[in-house]
Every structure is written in C-alpha cells, then in structure tokens.
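Just wondering, does anyone understand what follows?

——
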Amino acid sequence: MDYIKLLPDNIANQIAAGEVVQRPASIVKELLENSIDAGATSIKLITKEGGILLVQIIDNGSGMSVTDARMCWERHATSKIRSADDLFKLKSFGFRGEALASIAAIAHVEMKTKRAEDEIGTLIKIEGSKVNEQSQTATPDGTTFSIRNLFYNVPARRNFLKSVPVEMRHIIDEFTRVAMPHFNIAMSLYHNDKEVFELKPTTLANRIAELMSKKNTNDFLSVFENHDLVLVNGFVGKPEVAKRTRGEQFLFVNNRFIKDAYLNHAIASAYDQLIAKDQFPMYALFLTIDPGRIDVNIHPTKTEIKFDDERAIYALVKSAVRKALGQYNSTPELEFADKNVFNPVGFLNKEVVHTQSPDVKTNKSYNPFAAEQQWKQVQTSQWHKLFDTSIDQKESIHTFISSSSEVSNNGLGLTQETIDFEVIQLSNGCLATNHNGHFYIIDQRAAHERILFEKYSENIVYRSATVQQLLFPRTIELSKTDYILAHDLLDDIKDLGFDVADFGTNCLIINGVPAETIKGSEKELLESLLENYKNNSGSFAGDKRKALALSLAQNEAILRTKHLEKEEQIELINQLFKCETPAIRPNGKPVFVEFTNQKITDLFL
C-alpha cells in the first residue's frame, strides 16, 4: 500500500501561509511592497480592528492584465525572477511568488486591477484559495486589494492573534519600514476610519522626522560614506536625544528593512562614551550595495540578509557614524573665565571677564550620624526643622530600603522581625552571609528586583501605590507605536503610581510618579518602563500587570556596582526573606545560592 500522497493545493497554501502570514501586519508588508514594485506614486492603507477584519491597499501602480490578475494567485507565480541566478541581482521586494497564494488561502480576498491602456478593469473574489468570481469592473488605474476575516478557516491560528492595539502596533511598524525609504511616494494609513499617517512626497530627512514624530530635523546628524563596497547614508540622532527605548532604530539595505544585531552593534559602539549604557541612539541608515554581494533569500519575511564581507560592512558603518558624531562634537570649548584663552579674532572682551573664587561655607561640627539621630527626633509640631540643610544631606539609609520596607504588610513573609547578622559585600555585587548553619551568596540587584516586583504587583492589584505629584507637569513625545502601547497600558500604569494622561497626538503628560521611585527624569522613567515592558510582554502568559511590575522593578533595582553600607546590606537581606518567593527572580533565574556547612566541608574532601 502506498502512503505518500500529494497534498491538495488549498492545504499546501495554508501550510505556506503559516510562514508568510503570521498576523495582519504580514499582509500589510507584502501588499505595500507589491505596490512599490508596481511603480505606485500614491498608496493608501485602510485597516479595521487591527487588520483582523479588514486590510485594504489602494495604489495607482501599473495594474495587471486579465491573465496576470488570475495568474498572480497561483503559488510561485512571479514577475520578478526567471531563474535562480536572478536572486543575486534583485531590484524588487517580492520574488518568491508565495504571498498572494498564502493570503488567499486563509482570508476572504477581493482584488480590482486595471492598466492605464485598458478601458475596463478586472475583479476577482477568492475564499480559501477558491476563485468564486472573475469579472470585468470599472475601477481606477492601479490595484486595490481588500483582505477580510483573516484566518476565518484556521481558528487555531486566529486564536493566537493579540489584542487590537498590539496588532495595530505591528501594522504601524511595517508601514513605517516601507514608507521611510520611499519618501517620494505619497502614503497614508487609516485605522477604524481615523487618520494615523498622511504622508506627502518630501525629502528623506522630513519623512524620517514625520515617522519618528519629530517636529523638525534639528535632532539629526547627516551620515554619508561612499566606498567601493557600500554606500552608507542617512541620519543618526544627536547623543542628547538618545532614549531608553529601541523603537526609533531603522536599518535598510537597498531600501529593504533588515534586522541585523551585528550592524546594530556597530552603530551602538560608535556612541561609546557619548550616551549612557541603558540608552539607545536614534538612527535611520541606508546601505546601498551590489545585489550580487548579498543574499536576501534567507527567510520568508526577507528581513535577514547575508553579506559576503560582513566585517568590512561593520567597519564602514561604524566609521561613518563616528565621523558624523565627531563633526558634531568637534566644536572647541572656550574657557571664557580665562584671560589667557586663545582669542585670535578678539571677540572676547577681557576687561569684562571677572574671576572670583566661590565663597564656600562649611560646618566643621557636622556629624552625619548625629543628623540621623536628629531626623528621628523631629516631631510633627517641629515641621520647620524638616528643611534643615544638615538633615537634607542624609537621605535615610538608601532609597531602596524605604521603598522595600512595606513589602510584607499583607502576609507575604513569615515574620516582620528583622535579624541582625554579619554580611560581606563582594566585589562582583554579591552579598555573602552565614546564618543558622547556612552560607548564602546573594545577588544584590536580583534581590532588590524581587522585593520591588512583589511590592509593585501588590500596588497594581490593590491600587495602593502612593503618587508623588510633580510641581511642574512633564510632557513626553513618543513614537506612534510606543504611544499606542502606552495608551493600551494607561490604566495599569496609573495603578503603578503614575499620574499620566493623554495630551494629544503621540504625547502624554506626566503629573506624578510613584513616590518610592528614585528621583530623576520622569520622561526617562516612563520610556524605560515601556522598553522593559516590550521585553517582558512575552512572560507571565500575557499578564500585563505582572509584566509592568517587573518592568518598573528592573528599572528601579540597584546596580551590582552599588556600594552598600552595612545597615543597607542587612536591611536588603531581611526584606528579601520576607518575600513570598525569595529564592528566584521573576524571570526564573536564582536570587541566591545556598550552602550548608557540611556541603562546604565536603568541597575540600
């Protein structure tokens, strides 16, 4: 008996759709690229309910003949290549001939198309790879695709789709990646009949500014490096506009968006010593290279590219970015208070310059330990003493101690009593202690992260967070995708202790922050929260609240390089063992390792 059978076309197309069409954004990417390949100068994208109900693309491209309109829905039918050798001289986006067949296999599809030389257009309707109608129709020049009810016949795949805001964020990402390099094409995006983007043909700098929600191009530095191997051009952000989020980073090869950790590292390393380690530079770089020196046939999404000389590309990209940053930072600093400063054109009026040593007053009797005692003795009736400068210089033991001291108030720990014991802080950011016959090595950052995670989780559930109102509200401008993400999480962010409200297009206004957070830039605090959330959103089985609690805990946890005083070390360990799950971090990694005295002895036997 023969067991091997040839799969029917409709089943084969559904299997292929699993690689090509993962979510509505996948359809958006494929259809937008088809419109670009068709020479369109105007493209309109319309979506409903995050693309789950409708994805519609309207372009004024070349259109298709009657025969091509039917043939394009067959698997591996393409106008882009004729042989395998053509893969190494590609100038188009599409070439596999799988996208339309895969889309037709898992959705209700309608296509209207017409060439400029034809008097009448063609209408085709397909459901589950079956052509239900092919007829003539009146339609403008170009092609219109309407994709409805995605995964209607594959309910298991439909169940894996996320919420409307999440799917819409992915659509905006794909729209941005196509619209940015094609700045000479008019492109628009509407969601649920509301305008998201309305882009006119413009310059590259202005298109980048529009898509990155920048009011002007003053935050950009121009990059240009022409080499026999590759042409690198585009823009990078000034060091002072670096953010805590990775969202505004775009890398293109021959106008095709790619993801390449190696080249991203080249760009980031060019900013070494210019931005903090937890900040990410903004950039939109375009690499133009001979198609014969790259291979784009790596993955169906075509976002991965293999270079024939990756190290040389790395060096050239890093050099180009460093050159732009060097020109920006090359302005000499003038010491205006120095009368002997180099002054070739005489614009410094030396007679106006006065130098005077600052008058510094010191209190030689100041004792920080006495100040701590004084703080404890201050009564409410003596409120004016709270402003004593000698008290201000002592900020309790540490911010994290006060922020952690209330973790176990709802029964999370076994005891509320603190235990005094000997602790040693090791040079690698670990605490070593011996207690009740057990020797512990504790990661101080992991311990603090666990403490804060349980506290923030409790705050969200019971809405018990304390808000510190700001004297002057802060506004924060986000990218489109981060704005939609923040809007989706707004209620849960408020439960964490943020007083945040919508402030118009892509903007939020911050009126208050959690009282226990370390004071600093409220803008960076919220940006870090969003960035950490994107990294943690896949954890906790989709529990947004726990992901948010972990995100804030990661942002506020002390560093491993932080030196702790003896009281801080003891308090941190006490608070850790009051936690519900002290042994592991929220991501499942250990907080400490434990040795019994016998186990330590056995190591030397």
